[in-house]
């Protein structure tokens, strides 16, 4: 099995329907769905907002430090079975504090599981604090301060949620602060929004990699810029199909991205909602595009290169990927 890094993964998006009901019972949360199958049957989305409505509703069952640790550990166990050896995971802290769950509860639970990831699952891990772009930048700044105050180690910061109508530029000062604090920077762009949204996070937020970025392919100048500077794109094929960012998998731009020399890698985004973890995504694109073993190895190499691991650790993992 090839080693992969997973770099675009929302922990809240790994909340499987069965766990939703288990945690609801534990925490005495009333749910509007009959059972896990009823909930899973609602996972059909006309747009990003349809998904987000369910995503935030299900979060109501996450209440305690143990809940967040259990969620994170379950993902890591599944990721290890998929061949993931490095996971740089997102946590939407604002979505939890807004409903009354304190930052130390959320982040301590996540950090507990991440801290045991290598020993328990053979997966090295880092935590990226994601800001919700549909909320004011001032709210994100408060969330960042709360996260820093917990003392939990952060790998980086990111920006997610709805692109259209919610520009990234207002978050520039917060990103500058994160860089000054020694953190890495990423942002969602080019899934809903066009290539201008990718330019915006590159120019205003100075991100080191772009999450999604599939709409960059309509701008040749942007493609050259990304290729020349080796700026990675964390592509999520099954997510893109389920959210109708592409019509069907056969029309996905991943092969063109690889042909253009982009550092594109495959990720699962919110696998509990989109029908597949990393190995499912790799299998789907391999089948859809007839990828050769060399091309799949390129995806593995790209994922490791795109990670925020130290150079020596990257080289060690790359040595396990056939040239």
The count of DSSP E runs of length 2 or more, i.e. the number of strands, is 8
- The residue fraction in helices comes out at 40-55%
The main β sheet shows up as: 8 strands, parallel
State the distance separating the first and last CA atoms: 15 Å
Structural topology:
Blueprint: E1 4-6, H1 17-27, H2 36-40, H3 48-58, H4 65-81, E2 84-91, H5 93-97, H6 103-115, H7 117-121, E3 124-132, H8 137-150, E4 156-160, H9 172-180, E5 184-189, H10 195-203, E6 209-212, H11 220-228, E7 233-235, H12 237-242, H13 254-259, E8 264-266, H14 271-274, H15 278-289, H16 293-306, H17 311-318
Parallel strand pairs: 1-2, 2-3, 3-4, 4-5, 5-6, 6-7, 7-8
How would you describe the overall organization of this protein?
The protein is of the alpha/beta class and 323 residues long. The chain has one domain: TIM Barrel, CATH 3.20.20. Helix content is 49%, strand content 13%. The chain is built from 17 helices and eight strands. An eight-stranded parallel beta sheet has the order 1-2-3-4-5-6-7-8. Helix 4 (65-81) packs parallel to helix 6 (103-115) and helix 6 (103-115) crosses helix 8 (137-150). The longest helix has 17 residues, at 65-81. The chain is globular and about 50 Å long. The model has no long low-confidence stretch (mean pLDDT 97).
């Amino acid at each position: 099995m090839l080693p992969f890094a997973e770099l675009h993964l929302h922990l809240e998006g790994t909340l499987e329907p069965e766990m939703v009901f288990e945690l609801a019972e534990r925490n005495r949360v009333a749910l509007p769905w009959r059972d896990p199958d009823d909930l899973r049957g609602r996972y059909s989305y006309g747009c990003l907002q349809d998904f987000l409505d369910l995503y935030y509703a299900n979060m109501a069952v996450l209440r305690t430090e143990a809940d967040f640790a259990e969620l994170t550990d379950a993902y890591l166990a599944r990721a290890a079975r998929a061949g993931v050896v490095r996971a740089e995971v997102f946590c939407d802290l604002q979505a939890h504090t807004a409903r009354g769950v304190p930052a130390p509860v959320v982040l301590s639970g996540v950090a507990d599981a991440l801290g045991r990831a290598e020993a328990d699952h053979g997966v090295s891990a880092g935590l990226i604090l994601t800001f919700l772009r549909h909320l004011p930048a001032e709210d994100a700044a408060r969330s960042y301060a709360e996260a820093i105050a917990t003392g939990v180690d952060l790998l980086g910061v990111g920006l997610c949620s709805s692109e259209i109508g919610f520009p990234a530029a207002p978050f520039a000062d917060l990103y500058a602060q994160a860089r000054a604090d020694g953190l890495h920077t990423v942002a969602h762009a080019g899934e809903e929004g066009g290539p201008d949204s990718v330019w915006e996070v590159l120019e205003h937020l100075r991100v080191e990699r772009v999450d999604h970025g599939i709409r960059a392919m309509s701008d040749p100048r942007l493609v050259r810029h990304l290729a020349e500077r080796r700026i990675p794109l964390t592509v999520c094929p099954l997510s893109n199909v389920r959210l109708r960012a592409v019509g069907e998998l056969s029309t996905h731009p991943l092969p063109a991205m690889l042909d253009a020399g982009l550092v594109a890698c495959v990720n699962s985004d919110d696998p509990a909602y989109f029908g597949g973890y990393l190995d499912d995504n790799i299998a789907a694109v391999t089948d859809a595009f007839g990828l050769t073993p060399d091309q799949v190895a390129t995806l593995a190499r790209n994922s490791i290169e795109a990670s925020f691991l130290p150079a020596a650790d990257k080289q060690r993992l790359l040595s396990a990927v056939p040239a």
